[in-house]
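Lay summary

Proteins are chains of building blocks that fold into shapes. Our project writes down both the chain and a compact code for its shape. Here are two examples, one after the other.
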Amino acid sequence: MPRRRVGRRRRRLKVLVVGGYGRMGRWFASYLRRKGHRVWITGRKGYKLARASRQLRVPKVGFGEAAPWVDTAIISVPPQRIGQVVKQYDSLLDDDCLVVDISSIKRPVEKCFKALRRPVLVMHPFWGGSADSIKGRNLAVTYPRRLEPRARTLVEDLEKGGAVVTRCTPEEHDKAITFTLALPHLLGAVYGFSLSLSELPPRRLGRLGGRSFQTMLGLARAVAEESPEVYAAIQMAGPRYAKILREVSRRIDEIASGISGGRADRFMETLITSSRALGMLGGS
């Protein structure tokens, strides 16, 4: 008689989301609850925590209170506060509790998480708290190389939801986000600012714009909807980013000088260079 295959039993996690009333904290609390895990949330501001608890239909835990019953803690706070919060909660959680980082910058975080004597998972979901679907969205996992069972469950649940998982080092991750996050955020913010100089009503601009306008408007709106504190931290991604900004600024100054003198040759050169760079990227 053929042996019946028994599938791996699905692990049900007990998850505490620290910063659970923020945009990403709420997203993870809601998503994991729908996936069948038990979820609690906590955060510094009591009134926001109580409201999120009611809306998400998950119990709350007072900020700084011990939670020895959870087996997984997701840290969803601005990058500059991660070290402080992780240090605080290290003594409030069970020694075997998995601590998960979901921030946008990885090299500083990795040092903090490697120092912990407990299971950890360092990952970056490339979507915002307003995402209705994560199908086709990227998820970077940077540490550790071998995932323990609870970390594997989290990553697999996101993958089953449609996320595309990529393993990389913290160094490669932070080098990439200069171009995939920091610059797009800056361009979106600057474009939104430039619209205030148009002297035309936004609705009128929409009637007199094409696809490029709609694309840039969409980027500006997406950036404007997110946390200024978090996005400012991404702008501080690394010293190489400042060097790139200076180069971009110099190129813009050259284009502006040329246009003032009735020439657009520097703009055309920039467009040609852009086309070549996009050609190297291919269809990715």
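And here is the second example, written the same way.
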Amino acid sequence: MLIEHRTYTAYPGKLDKQIADFEKYGLKVQKRHFGDPVAWLVPETGDMNSYVHIWGFRRFCRPGKETRSACCRSGVAGLPGAKRGERVPHEAGKQVNDAGFLRSDQAVASTCMNILETTQEIYHAFGNGDVAFMLSKFSDDVVLEPWATTAVESGKVPYYKARRGKAGAKEFYASMSAVELKGFKVNGFMAGDNHVCARVSIEFTVKATGKVVRDEELHLWTFDDRGLIISLQHFGDTAKHIEANTK
């Protein structure tokens, strides 16, 4: 995992206000670009006017060339205090990596836990019909059903179609109105690197045909470095779904 380590120095006596302003105005913006931070650190000894924030990524980004670093630089400068002449007098940032003789197991575990929690929250929102929350977890260029399964190629299964972007994700959830859900249970999760796989039992009636589908499925979620979903693929008994949607 690549670590973005940034140190900011506030004017004397302004540190608490700087932190409060960032929590109120800046954190939401940075989380939208980065996901959750690895750490936000304030001093106990040494320079009492500086603070550090740390973010974890899985690949290199050139400072000044990509949204993440640009967002880092603008995060503090864009706060209300900056407009009143309270901008930090000094900032320093660097991207660092594991030296090689120690493994970053804890960092990898933290990343897996974050995307696992996001996936669990999505299924909870699905049960509550909270489409807005689910869509907020998709990237703008997300791809649904990226691999052309038999069900996708048949064109007969409305909820199994290749879709792109948040509009496509919204269309996917809307397509579920074609079925009457009888049962939906998440039986477990597997997480690794930037993937989460959910094992799901599902039962529903296809409204157009009155036929019932009972299936055991795998849902494969893929995330980017910001913790947003870039891919969703369903694995199930495609023959069952095609037959149930055929009059």
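What can we say about the second shape? Confidence is low (pLDDT under 50) at residues 61-78, 80-85.
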